[in-house]
Write a structure and sequence with these properties.
Layout (H helix, E strand, L loop, with lengths): L1 H18 L3 H5 L5 E7 L4 E3 L7 H18 L1 H4 L12 E3 L2 H6 L9 E2 L7 H9 L9 E11 L4 E10 L4 E11 L5 H27 L3
Parallel strand pairs: 1-3, 1-5, 2-4, 2-5
Antiparallel strand pairs: 5-6, 6-7
Helix pairs in contact: 3-7
């Protein structure tokens, strides 16, 4: 019986190892990419004059900003920036929508400068409860929405969904812009996507060449 249990454990461990994904797998087309959305749990809102309704941000806009990724794929999909085929890409933001319910907006509106570290990003990822277990997830861990600088800053973070291990993260800024509060900050997300498309994909594909 002990030998049988040992054999089963070896099989399980072996299966987990073979299921792990690397950044090289993403850029060689061996792993699919899942856009998980925006994590606002560590975000601050800089420039008090620009954030006068924290309740609306908490209960309405956080959900809306995430849902735009699925509802407006022509603008917010990462399939084109990562040069992926239809079966290599999907978006699934529901886990981030749930996570953001624990975010605190009212206490994080400030006029002071603010930044988070890579280690803080890693700690955030470790707390995720993700329904998708296959491929590589990408999440934007939002550092700040700065009305004074008119930009959204986020850590573009890649996660091996089979192990929930953070593979890589990089801070990226996107200039905000658009009509209305929702669209203004959604513009920052769009600009981050453009930065990936125009510059970062090429850099990363060289960096993680298999």
């Amino acid at each position: 019986m002990k030998k049988l249990l040992l054999f089963v454990m070896v099989l399980l461990v072996g299966g987990n190892v073979s299921a792990q994904n690397s950044m090289a797998d993403l850029f060689s087309g061996k792993a699919k990419l899942v856009f998980l959305g925006l994590d606002f749990t560590q975000a601050k809102y800089i420039g008090k004059i620009g954030f006068t309704d924290p309740s609306a941000i908490q209960n309405q806009h956080m959900v809306s900003w995430n849902n735009l990724i699925e509802m407006e794929p022509k603008k917010f999909s990462l399939q084109k920036p990562f040069s992926l085929k239809d079966d290599q890409y999907m978006s699934k933001v529901e886990d981030m929508v749930k996570l953001n319910k624990a975010a605190n907006v009212a206490d994080n509106i400030t006029d002071d400068a603010y930044s988070i570290t890579e280690d803080q990003v890693k700690k955030s990822v470790a707390k995720y409860s993700l329904s998708e277990k296959d491929g590589i997830g990408v999440v934007y861990v939002v550092e700040s929405l700065s009305k004074t600088a008119e930009k959204l800053t986020a850590w573009v973070t890649f996660i091996d969904l089979s192990t929930k291990k953070m593979l890589y993260t990089e801070k990226v800024e996107g200039k905000a812009g658009g009509f209305g509060f929702r669209n203004y900050w959604a513009g920052g997300v769009y600009k981050i996507n453009n930065e990936i498309d125009s510059k970062l994909y090429k850099k990363w594909s060289k960096q993680f060449k298999g």
